[in-house]
């Protein structure tokens, strides 16, 4: 950090405090005459968006961004975390707050374990310090696109519901609809635009906010929003209906009936009312998602206790649950799942990282016929060395003793998947 500070001062031609917004703004916009961003009561903004927009104008901007990244990691994690480790058990214990986030989400403090960095190399090194107890593994389970699924449910939009039911890439499906293109012809940037619009609808983003995120003119951002609502009319009806109910009732409600007052809708100021409208719409999705994950936490905790398992919940990160699970329980559970599926359960399916196993009974030869269907995956090796190609279906006769090998194989595969989840966590 000292080297970055010295380099920034060298580029500026004078000494200044890199942690002072006012001094940084003076250097950037007055002395170096870079393109200024928003100006508030305390002066020009030097936030992340502003620096990103002028990164190409001068070398000093990149140096400032790097210094800020290291400063945040040092002051938020590297400095405080060692002092917060419990002397009793050598673990970090966060505080969960029920009534801080207005949406009903749980938040954590002292330390905030919901924001452990992962986007940068140094951030990933910090995250790698969070490990499970010896003999256990961290197991991550999360809802996939839970808020967008809630939007599809509450709006009743057929196109969104069909895309989810078919297991499609929801952002690619949205891009194809909004842009009127075949999915095979979509570019990565076009999918990213659709992703921003999808989440913009959920979080109630304005055309201004979307333009900032995508770095495009506000008019173009509004065109994307208008095109989205035109292609998904049930979503537009849901938004209008939600705002009307919130205006008449004074509050918005989640699917579970939890309420959030929205007094902003009564304000005379147009911008304040617009903010209230976005809050009301967002609360239905984000608030419902918060309720769902809390219900899941209660149900999982109860089941773990009822079944006498040593696994336990250790952290919730919005739509993700992190459990600490003894290795023996991971193996046992994988074997039980496999044996349940490949026992005398004709017609049942087992979904695994290797594919979808469909079990059929052949009573004449006293064998199980295991059909492995693999769709849109790279070739994988399965039990007893059989290989299944992309989008292929292989039909093999396995003697009953081979089913135990299958169970062991799936147990190993699940451990590999658990390791991947640990890496992601």
Tell me what you see in this structure.
The chain is α+β, with helices and mostly antiparallel strands and 425 residues long. Helices cover 52% and strands 15% of the residues. The protein has helices at residues 2-12, 21-31, 48-53, 59-78, 80-84, 121-127, 146-155, 158-165, 170-179, 188-203, 207-214, 218-231, 233-249, 270-306, 327-342, 400-424, and strands at residues 39-40, 43-44, 95-97, 107-109, 136-142, 251-253, 259-261, 312-317, 320-326, 349-352, 355-362, 367-373, 380-381, 387-388, 393-398. The chain has a four-stranded antiparallel sheet with strand order 10-11-12-15, with helices on one face. A three-stranded antiparallel sheet has the order 5-9-8. Helix 15 (327-342) crosses helix 16 (400-424). The two termini are 27 Å apart. 24% of the residues are buried. Residues 333-408 have low confidence and may be disordered.
